[in-house]
Design goal:
Blueprint (H helix, E strand, L loop, with lengths): L8 H14 L11 E4 L6 E5 L4 H18 L4 H17 L1 H12 L3 H21 L7 E2 L6 E9 L2 E5 L7 H13 L3 E4 L5 H17 L7 E3 L4 H9 L3 E7 L2 H13 L3 E5 L4 E5 L5 H13 L9 E7 L3 H13 L19 H16 L3 E4 L3 E2 L9 E2 L2 E4 L15 E7 L2 H9 L3 E2 L1 E5 L3 H8 L8 E4 L11 E2 L2 E2 L6 E2 L8 E9 L15
Parallel strand pairs: 5-6, 5-8, 6-7, 8-9, 10-11, 10-18, 11-16, 15-16, 18-19
Antiparallel strand pairs: 1-2, 3-4, 4-23, 12-15, 13-14, 17-21, 20-22
Bound molecules: 2-aminohexanedioic acid.
InterPro entries: Ald_DH/histidinol_DH, Ald_DH_C, Ald_DH_CS_GLU, Ald_DH_N, Aldehyde_DH_dom, ALDH7A1-like
GO molecular function: aldehyde dehydrogenase (NAD+) activity
EC number: 1.2.1.3
C-alpha cells in the first residue's frame, strides 16, 4: 500500500522556512554553496554555507572560555538552564519534528517521538543536576577522610548521525550542560536545519539564563570539520554516533591524544522467538522494530532467530503484515514507512538482498522500490523479510535499510550463540512466556548486548536507562543511569585531620 502523490519542493521549502523562523533561526543563513535535499521528494530543501575546518579551532577556543564560567556555576543552576531548554523544546515540538521529517524522512509520529525523547532527557538531566554524587570510603588511617568529587570535564564534541538527528544531540547536551561542559556539535550534513533549530532554541534558554552563549555551538560541514574536532587537544570528550568504520577512525585518533571517547556505532540486533512466545505480540514487536524508521535505527531489528516449530507460522504472519505496510509521504497521516535517506541506502539494500539469495535465502516479501515515478531521486522501498537457511555472511553485516532475516534454531543454546555470533553488540530481545528462558537470555551467559529486552522489540529505548552496546558498537553509554560520569572527571580526595602522618599500607618513613 503506497500513497501516490508526494509534496513539491516549494511546499517542503516553505514548511522548513516557517518552522525555522518560529524556532528563532535567522533565515539569512539559508544561502550558500551547499544544497541539502529532502528524502521525501529528493529535491532541494535548502542552501547553506558550511563551516570551514579552520573555524572549528575558533569555536573550540570560545567553548573553552565558556567552560571557565560554567564549571564554576552551581550544578543546580546549570540544571535550571536545561529545565528551560526542555520547556522550549515542548513549545517547539511540532516545528522541530517537521524539520526532522523534512530532512531525514521520519514519519510524523516518530519525529514527534524523537523530540519527546529530547524533552525526557532534559527532565532527567534537571534531576541529575542535584545528584552528581561522589562516594565517601572508610580510610584505613585514623583521622583521615577519603572521598571522591566529580568535576566538569571540559569541551564536549558531539558528532551525530542522520537517523536521530536531534535526539542524540540532546542526550549529550542536556547531560553535558548539567555536568558543567560546553558542547560543540557537528550534526549530520544531511540534517543541518534541524541542528540550527535546536541550537536556536537552546540559545534562547541560554540568553534568558544569562549563561555564556558559547555553551552551545554548531559546526556544519563534512568529514574535515569532524576530523578537526576529533583531533583538537582542547576537546575533552568526543561523543560520536555513526558507522563502525567512522568509530574505528575516531576512536584511534582520540586515543592517540589521550582524549576521551564515547562511541555509539552499528548494531545487528536480533530477536529470539521461542515456542512459547505470544505470536500476536511478537509480530507487532518485530514489525515496529524492523520496518519502523524504514529500518534506519541503530537499534533496528535485523535478525529473527526463530524456533523451527514456529518458523512457518511467524513467516506467514510477518509476510501478511509487511504486504499491508503503508509506505509513502512520511508527513501524511497513516504512513508507517517513509523514504530511505538516499540512493546509496537503496543500493545497499538491493545488494544485500542479492547476496542473501546467493547464500540460499528466499525473499518472502519486499525489496521493491516504490514511488520512483512520483520522484526519481527519492527512495521508497517495500521492507523485506528474507528466510535464511542459517546465519550466513550477509546476516552478520549491518545493512542500514529494512531487511529482516529469519534464521531457524532448534535449542536455546544454539539461539543464544547465534544472537552473539555477530561483530556488533547493541540490542537484543527474546519473545517467550517461559521465565527460565527469559532469565537465561538476561544472564551472564545470555545475550552479550548492551540492551537486552524481554517481550518487546530491539528499538525504542527510554532515556532513563544507559543506552549503548558492546563489541563493534563501541562500548559507550549515553542518556540515563550513570552515563553522566563520562562527562565529568573524578578526583579522589584524602583529607588528614589527625595531626599525625600515618602512611598507608603501614609504610615506615621516619626521618
Ligand atoms: C539510534 O538509532 O541511533 O532505542 C538511536 C531507540 C532510540 C534511539 C536509537 N531511543 O531506538
Amino acid at each position: 500500500m503506497t500513497t501516490t502523490a508526494l509534496p513539491t519542493a516549494d511546499d517542503l521549502q516553505a514548511q522548513a522556512r516557517s518552522a525555522l523562523e518560529r524556532c528563532g533561526v535567522d533565515l539569512d543563513l539559508l544561502t550558500g554553496e551547499q544544497t541539502s535535499h529532502s528524502p521525501i521528494n529528493g529535491e532541494t530543501l535548502a542552501n547553506l554555507s558550511w563551516t570551514s575546518a579552520d573555524e572549528v579551532d575558533a569555536c573550540v577556543a570560545r567553548a573553552r572560555d565558556a567552560f571557565a564560567i560554567w564549571r564554576d556555576t552551581p550544578a543546580p543552576a546549570r540544571g535550571a538552564l536545561v529545565r528551560r531548554l526542555g520547556a522550549l523544546l515542548m513549545e517547539h515540538k511540532a516545528d522541530i519534528a517537521t524539520l526532522v521529517s523534512l530532512e531525514v524522512g521520519k514519519i510524523t509520529s516518530e519525529a514527534l517521538g524523537e523530540v519527546q525523547e529530547m524533552i525526557d532527557v532534559c527532565d532527567f538531566a534537571v534531576g541529575l543536576s542535584r545528584q552528581l554524587y561522589g562516594r565517601t570510603m572508610p580510610s584505613e588511617r585514623p583521622g583521615h577522610r577519603l572521598m571522591e568529587t566529580w568535576h566538569p570535564l571540559g569541551v564536549v564534541g558531539v558528532i551525530s548521525a542522520f537517523n536521530f538527528p536531534v535526539a542524540v544531540w540532546s542526550w549529550n547536551t542536556a547531560i553535558a550542560l548539567v555536568c558543567g561542559d560546553p558542547v560543540v556539535w557537528k550534526p549530520s550534513e544531511t540534517a543541518p536545519l534541524s541542528a540550527l533549530a535546536c541550537n536556536a532554541v537552546l540559545q534562547q534558554a541560554i540568553a534568558e539564563a544569562a549563561a555564556p552563549a558559547n555553551l552551545s555551538q554548531v559546526v556544519i560541514g563534512g568529514a574535515d570539520v569532524g576530523q578537526r574536532l576529533v583531533d583538537h587537544q582542547d576537546v575533552a570528550l568526543i561523543s560520536a554516533t555513526g558507522s563502525t568504520r567512522m568509530g574505528q577512525a575516531v576512536g584511534q585518533r582520540v586515543a592517540a591524544r589521550f582524549g576521551r571517547c564515547l562511541l555509539e556505532l552499528g548494531g545487528n540486533n536480533a530477536a529470539i522467538v521461542t515456542p512459547s512466545a505470544d505470536l500476536d505480540l511478537t509480530v507487532r514487536g518485530i514489525v515496529f522494530a524492523a520496518a519502523g524508521t524504514a529500518g534506519q535505527r541503530c537499534t533496528t531489528m535485523r535478525r529473527v532467530i526463530v524456533h523451527e516449530s514456529v518458523l512457518d507460522d511467524l513467516a506467514k504472519r510477518l509476510t501478511s503484515v509487511y504486504e499491508r505496510l503503508p509506505i509513502g509521504d512520511p508527513t501524511t497521516d497513516g504512513t508507517l514507512v517513509g523514504p530511505l535517506i538516499g540512493g546509496s541506502a537503496y543500493q545497499a539494500m538491493t545488494a544485500a538482498l542479492g547476496q542473501a539469495q546467493d547464500e540460499g535465502g528466499k525473499v518472502l516479501v519486499g525489496g521493491e522500490r516504490q514511488l520512483a515515478d512520483a520522484a526519481s531521486d527519492a527512495y521508497y522501498v517495500q521492507p523485506a523479510v528474507v528466510q535464511m537457511p542459517q546465519q550466513t555472511q550477509i546476516v552478520t553485516r549491518e545493512t542500514f535499510a529494512p531487511v529482516l532475516y529469519l534464521i531457524p534454531y532448534t535449542d536455546l543454546d544454539e539461539a543464544l550463540s547465534l544472537n552473539n555470533a555477530v561483530p556488533q553488540g547493541l540490542s537484543s530481545s527474546i519473545f517467550t512466556e517461559d521465565q527460565a528462558e527469559a532469565e537465561r537470555f538476561m544472564s551472564a551467559a545470555g545475550s552479550d548486548c548492551g540492551l537486552v529486552n524481554v517481550n518487546i522489540g530491539t528499538s525504542g529505548a527510554e532515556i532513563g536507562g544507559a543506552f549503548g552496546g558492546e563489541k563493534e558498537t563501541g562500548g559507550g553509554r549515553e542518556s540515563g543511569s550513570d552515563a553522566w560520569r563520562t562527562y565529568m572527571r573524578r578526583a579522589t580526595n584524602t583529607v588528614n585531620y589527625s595531626g599525625e602522618l600515618p602512611l598507608a599500607q603501614g609504610v615506615d618513613f621516619s626521618v
